[in-house]
Amino acid sequence: MQLALIRHGQTDWNLRGVMQGRTDIPLNDTGRAQAEAAVALIDPAEWDLVVSSTLGRARETAAILARGLDLPVAGAYHDLVEQDFGAAEGTPVSEIDVRWPGRAFEGKEPDAEVGPRGVRALERITVDHAGARVLAVAHGTLIRHVLGELSGHEASSYPRLDNLAMSELERAADASWRVRTVGGAPFAEVLPSLLAVELAA
Description:
With 201 residues, the chain is α/β, with parallel strands linked by helices.
């Protein structure tokens, strides 16, 4: 099975540098244009369907991609939603580390739970759409945690993902997942920077 995790398009909170998390902020016009532009970069012959997280910005991005690629939208998965940042949501990112040293936000979903939750979504998609080639629209932090969970590297070591960045996964015959690309770059090219960040930590 082939699956690509795609970050949703831009929102006004993304533009303003505000912590978003589970807050259901819609796409802005730039985000819609980003999704439209991404259609031209994706070969519809390589994919069968589109799914998303249940948050509006992901669902709208998925709908734009599906329409442009002439693919069906085949479901929304709660386990693909962004990490819950609790009390920090709505706060400028530039203020986060001052207000919450160590990023210990009240009500925050524990970092250690995010990757496994995202992998549960992959497994659910595999059951629901066995053998399909799936585009899954989700969220930047969630995607980084999933990549970390699957590759054995820290989510924080992964680079920030741009809006509409695509990271491709492949499910092997033994049911394990392999990270093929990160934001469009081959995993082998990303790996040295992951190791460098982890060695420096």
